[in-house]
Amino acid sequence: MDAISLGRELSQTLMDGLIVDRGHPEYDKYRRIWNGLADRRPAAIVRARSVDDVRKTVRIAADQGALLAVRCGGHSLPGLSTCDEGIVLDLSLINDVAIDAAAGIADVGGGALLGDLDAAGARAGLVTPAGVVSHTGVAGLTLGGGMGWLSRKFGLTIDNLLGVEVVTADGRLIWASADSEPDLFWGLRGGGGNFGVVTRFRFRMHPLGPIVVGCWTYSALDCEAVLQGFHRLSTYAPRELTTNFAFTSTQLVVTACWSGVPEGAAAAVVPFGSLASPVSGSFGSMAYADLQKRHDELTAWGQRHYSKGGFLGKIDGAAIDCMKEAIASAPTANSDIYVLQLGGAINDVEETATAYSGRSASYYWIANAAWDKPADDTHCIDWGRKAAKSLAAISMQTNYVNEQSDFGKDIVIGAYGAEKYDRLAKLKARYDPANLFRLNQNIEPKT
């Protein structure tokens, strides 16, 4: 079916939401996603307002053999939350967050952003660990695993997931949890959007007061001393402490976040401010929701990004040399190598308990090229691939599907390992045998 006919069929379908076709005055507004590299023209965008809208859209896409992209926050690095000629199912209007403070539970709409979850949680004094940028979609982040400032203390986002409401490829509405559709629930925790459209998440939440954050900027010339000290201090850090750094061609920004009792903050955080002579620094109490917004401007919509990541067991001399060499040729001032400390509660869960892989890692790294001009695309993408390839050579075998600008079967098998991938492929054959949900880090059905 051509784009005009597909758009017409959607427009004639009774829906609660809005159908935005190519003739709509706001078509260009709604077709954009976060990564400026992905400039695509779908036949139509369905701005769903209800679960019924989602089910109708999925059925039409399946019946017509149309390409279907599912968009929540629109943060897919390879641009898989949009497409050319097909349908974009935009869940951003299904963004309600309902919190039962007494039970410590949040029900979150499939189109909600981390900022929606964080703000609702803050009003109740509760949190769910999820990401580090507030305009990220809850759905994409969660389905890939979800790591952030509180993961060492409370686990990955999927470790706090109690259940999901999901529309499958045949239009059914299913509740998946440990007690209902447990195989599907296993696959949804790390398997991405391969198995359906999640319209509601249920999360466990945790009490959390103000946190203490220290942030120091060092000259890139001091990188060896800073990174050696960073690894030394973080190796034995309690799980109430999470650290990270962003390494650019001119500077190293080290951040330490303490979520334990206030009395322990200074002893845990302040040493990260004396790894060398800092250019600047800060230390103090902060609301968690404010910390979640700290990188929002640096990762603003419309900038062009190419990113690839991986897991490290340690930051040793080989890793430091690799980072130094890569960042020396960074194509732009805000291209960086970002490293987040893992461990703690993430390690408490068995590797086989979820589709997500990489629980034994101590750190997660991502090489990110960021730029504005289309003329710089080739140069910046080449740097990103080269830097990531170099770091991948000294990294663990598994990977994180959420932060890979390239996609394909080799990447997906590499992320999960052969055994998990085989289980996921068989699960895919049960719930999506025609591979309707293929705009993702795709798991091909296997009978």
Helix content: 25-40%
**Taking strands numbered 1, 2, ... along the chain, how are they ordered across the largest sheet?**
15-12-14-13-17-18-16
Mean pLDDT: 96
What is the 3D form? Answer: globular
- End-to-end gap: 29 Å
| Main beta sheet strand tally, sense and closure | 7 strands, antiparallel
Rounded Rg = 21 Å
Q: Which consecutive residue ranges, at least 5 long each, have pLDDT under 50?
A: none
How many E-type strands? 18
Number of H/I helices: 15
The percentage of residues in β strands lies in 15-25%
Question: What class, by secondary structure content?
Answer: alpha+beta
Characterise this structure:
The chain has 447 residues and is α+β, with helices and mostly antiparallel strands. The protein has 15 helices and 18 strands. The strands form 4 sheets. Strands 15-12-14-13-17-18-16 form a 7-stranded antiparallel beta sheet. Strands 5-6-10-8-9 form a 5-stranded antiparallel beta sheet. Strands 1-2-4-3 form a 4-stranded mixed beta sheet. α11 runs antiparallel to α13 (377-392) and α14 crosses α15. The chain starts with a helix and ends in a 16-residue tail after the last helix. The model has no long low-confidence stretch (mean pLDDT 96).
